[in-house]
């Protein structure tokens, strides 16, 4: 079944495409919060009303081809805990949707670039993911999907306040724009410690790989807007784009400085991390993420030529607890996960190296 691929493959199809600034920006995401006019917010819905919304979207949106996308409808109540965890680790659904699992669902496009969460904090969370820095393109596609949905439903909308949402911080455009960035040089030089507070003062927020409350594993940071009211969607995206371009320039400058002043030490760090990944028999996720970040930096700087650069995108998902256990076919104890993680990393790196050497 096509649905099985959502849980078995770590890298979504869209992630393998060439994209602008993909050496630093892993992905661009647009998320729109929307609610239906004739229903209370999800936190106040009865069980029957929640199920009514789910049935409506299942019946109305799977059969139609108006969106030029083929969606698969996944009810959270019908998924195994590990399957739901994998979808969270791949950024296709939110942890909040999992918590609402009895009355929640998700529509996923085959290439996983589109996700529509049903009965999350809002009735709908429309998400579009693009590789590299392509916020404007992602916004255009998200708006197309939003317009398609609006042909079938009436949104809760106020002429003065804009789109009405369960959380006041989303009122207005209902837009959350974010980029996932790999910033190893700014982290190594500790410049990131002064940059983050400066970004926060601009009405943006910097978080870890899985958003609020998460750690920046593998030097991967998520930069997103905080303000949704009083600005147009275009202004929000342009403001974020401007800051991201500055971050890209600073990261590249920091990389150049490291190569100029500490080239041997940097190369040594990269190859030590590569050696750890290719030889470890037991490895925890934090150490694996750090080593993967070093190796990806080494690939970008030309130290390592035998491994493709999308290795970070793939393995950063594959080493997460949910995916590891789904890949293994069942629950694993922490030590078993560390052993499985090390084995999986060795296998994938060797496979990537062989394919790269033979032009695969």
Molecular structure report:
By secondary structure, this protein is α+β, with helices and mostly antiparallel strands. The model has no long low-confidence stretch (mean pLDDT 89). Helix content is 47%, strand content 15%. Helix 3 crosses helix 11. It is built from twelve helices and ten strands. The strands form two sheets. Strands 2-3-4-5-1-8-10-9 form an eight-stranded antiparallel β-sheet, covered by helices on one side. A two-stranded antiparallel sheet has the order 6-7.
Short description:
It is an enzyme of class 2 (transferase). This protein is an alpha+beta fold and 360 residues long.
Could you name the key traits of this structure?
10 strands; 8-stranded antiparallel sheet; alpha+beta; 360 residues
For the largest beta sheet, what order do the strands appear in spatially? 2-3-4-5-1-8-10-9
Query: Separation of termini?
Result: 26 Å
Written as H for each helix and E for each strand, in order along the chain, the element string is: HEHEHHEEEHEEEHHEEHHHHH
Mean pLDDT: 89
Individual helix count = 12
Largest sheet: 8 strands, antiparallel
What structural category characterises the helix and strand content? alpha+beta
In total, how many beta strands? 10
């Amino acid at each position: 079944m096509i649905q099985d691929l959502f849980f078995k493959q770590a890298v979504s199809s869209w992630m393998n495409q060439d994209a602008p600034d993909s050496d630093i920006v892993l992905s661009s995401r647009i998320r729109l919060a929307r609610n239906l006019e004739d229903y209370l917010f999800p936190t106040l819905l009865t069980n029957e009303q929640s199920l009514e919304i789910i049935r409506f979207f299942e019946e109305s949106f799977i059969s139609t081809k108006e969106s030029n996308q083929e969606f698969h409808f996944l009810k959270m109540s019908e998924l195994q805990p590990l399957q739901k965890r994998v979808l969270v680790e791949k950024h296709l659904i939110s942890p909040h949707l999992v918590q609402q699992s009895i009355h929640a669902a998700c529509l996923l496009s085959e290439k996983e670039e589109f996700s529509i969460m049903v009965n999350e904090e809002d009735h709908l969370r429309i998400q579009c993911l693009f590789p590299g820095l392509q916020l404007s393109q992602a916004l255009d596609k998200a708006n197309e999907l939003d317009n398609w949905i609006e042909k079938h439903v009436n949104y809760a909308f106020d002429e003065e306040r804009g789109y009405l949402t369960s959380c006041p911080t989303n009122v207005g455009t209902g837009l959350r724009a974010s980029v996932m960035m790999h910033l190893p040089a700014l982290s190594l030089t500790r410049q990131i410690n002064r940059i983050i507070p400066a970004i926060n003062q601009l009405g943006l927020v910097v978080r870890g790989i899985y958003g609020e409350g998460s750690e920046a594993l593998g030097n991967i940071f998520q930069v997103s807007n905080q303000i949704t009211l009083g600005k147009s969607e275009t202004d929000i995206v342009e403001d974020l784009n401007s800051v991201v371009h500055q971050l890209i320039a600073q990261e590249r400058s920091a990389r150049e400085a490291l190569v100029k002043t500490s080239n041997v030490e940097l190369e040594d760090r990269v190859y030590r991390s590569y050696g750890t990944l290719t030889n470890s028999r037991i490895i925890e996720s934090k150490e694996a993420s750090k080593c993967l970040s070093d190796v990806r930096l080494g690939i970008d700087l030309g130290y390592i030529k035998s491994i493709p650069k999308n290795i970070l995108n793939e393995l950063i998902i594959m080493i997460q607890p949910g995916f590891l256990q789904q890949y293994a076919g069942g629950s694993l104890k922490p030590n078993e996960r560390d052993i499985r993680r090390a084995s999986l990393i060795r296998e994938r790196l060797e496979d990537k190296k062989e394919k790269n050497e033979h032009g695969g």
